[in-house]
């Protein structure tokens, strides 16, 4: 079988938005997500507000569909979640009926593969903006010469921040059943997170934690350090997924103050694991002042 070339990527689908899908937000579902990510914020645990990364739940399938439609069929299983960038307009609340539409907005060739960028827009039923999210799907070993469409989101970590003192370093451990609980709450049944034998057959050292679960842990750390009384002040949360984490590991989120601009405080962060890896790179959060 020949290696797919640039001509095999279905770039004529760029900018073609899906029909909206609807998702009714139930209080029990948002609480389950908070519990599955060990979220201790009382406004999340009570079901008053959904945790920020819960925004992936109503949008994921709608977003993935057009992304996979661009990738050559023989390369689909080589993809990994590269980046995730949430831009929050307002929190999700139980009782909301959300409408999500999505499109592929960029394809970018890299030296080791191809990054496909998807954009999902979630609104209420009466078109009030709730969240925009950008997701890159990195296809290892794929080939695409050049770039087309919108660029990948920029949120690189400023190395100069390391000269200062972090505003927080928050350590979290995973529970033994964390991946099962997250799978149920998020609707992600991928067996690499649930079946140790299957994970090993895929070349992994065993079950790995969902990247979005670790991102939710990072969101907890940011909110806890900056706006615990009002998590709705979080307006952006973005990361680049870098290395796997197993449930036996602990992770540490190190947060740095990157200044205030246009009424928002920017926090730069990274998440490292007790195994010596960096799970999340180029983390950025924006908090309304």
Order of helices and strands: EHHHEEEEEEHHHEEEE
Number of strands: 11
Molecular shape: globular
Main sheet makeup: 11 strands, antiparallel
The mean pLDDT is 95
**Rg, alpha carbons:** 18 Å
Based on secondary structure, the structural category is: alpha+beta
Distance between the termini: 55 Å
Instruction: Note poorly predicted spans.
Output: none
* Helicity range: 10-25%
Strand content: 25-35%
Task: State the helix count.
Answer: 6
Assembly state here? single chain
What does the model show?
- The chain has 289 residues and is α+β, with helices and mostly antiparallel strands.
- The chain has 6 helices and 11 strands.
- Strands 1, 2, 3, 4, 5, 6, 7, 8, 9, 10 and 11 form an 11-stranded antiparallel β-sheet that branches.
- A hairpin with a 3-residue loop joins strand 3 (97-109) and strand 4 (113-124).
- The termini are far apart.
Question: Which descriptors would you attach to this protein?
Answer:
11-stranded antiparallel β-sheet; 289 residues; alpha+beta
Topology:
Blueprint: E1 21-24, H1 27-36, H2 42-45, H3 56-70, E2 79-88, E3 97-109, E4 113-124, E5 129-140, E6 147-149, E7 168-173, H4 178-186, H5 196-201, H6 211-226, E8 234-241, E9 250-261, E10 264-273, E11 278-288
Antiparallel strand pairs: 1-3, 2-5, 2-8, 3-4, 3-6, 4-5, 7-9, 8-11, 9-10, 10-11
Helix pairs in contact: 1-4
Quick summary of this structure?
This protein is of the alpha+beta class and 289 residues long.
């Amino acid at each position: 079988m020949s290696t797919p070339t640039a001509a095999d990527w279905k770039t004529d689908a760029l900018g073609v938005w899906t029909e909206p899908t609807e998702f009714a937000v139930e209080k029990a579902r948002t609480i389950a997500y908070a519990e599955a990510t060990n979220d201790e914020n009382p406004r999340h645990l009570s079901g008053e507000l959904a945790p920020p990364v819960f925004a992936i739940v109503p949008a994921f399938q709608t977003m993935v569909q057009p992304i996979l439609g661009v990738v050559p069929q023989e390369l689909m299983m080589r993809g990994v979640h590269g980046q995730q960038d949430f831009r929050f307009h307002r929190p999700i609340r139980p009782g909301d009926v959300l409408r999500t539409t999505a499109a592929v907005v960029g394809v970018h060739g890299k030296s080791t593969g191809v990054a496909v960028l998807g954009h999902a827009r979630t609104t209420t039923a009466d078109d009030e903006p709730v969240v925009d999210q950008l997701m890159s799907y990195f296809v290892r070993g794929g080939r695409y010469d050049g770039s087309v469409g919108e660029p990948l989101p920029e949120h690189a970590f400023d190395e100069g921040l390391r000269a200062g003192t972090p505003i927080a370093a928050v350590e979290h451990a995973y529970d033994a059943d964390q991946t099962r609980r997250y799978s149920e709450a998020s609707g992600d049944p991928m067996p690499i997170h649930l079946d140790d034998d299957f994970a090993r057959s895929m070349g992994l050292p065993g079950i790995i934690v969902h990247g979005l679960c670790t991102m939710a842990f990072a969101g907890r750390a940011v909110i806890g350090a900056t706006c615990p009384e009002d998590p709705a002040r979080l307006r952006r949360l973005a990361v680049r997924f870098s290395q796997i984490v197993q449930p036996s590991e602990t992770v540490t989120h190190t947060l740095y103050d990157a200044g205030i601009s246009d009424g928002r405080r920017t926090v730069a962060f990274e998440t490292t694991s007790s195994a010596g890896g960096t799970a999340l790179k180029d983390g950025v959060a924006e908090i309304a002042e």
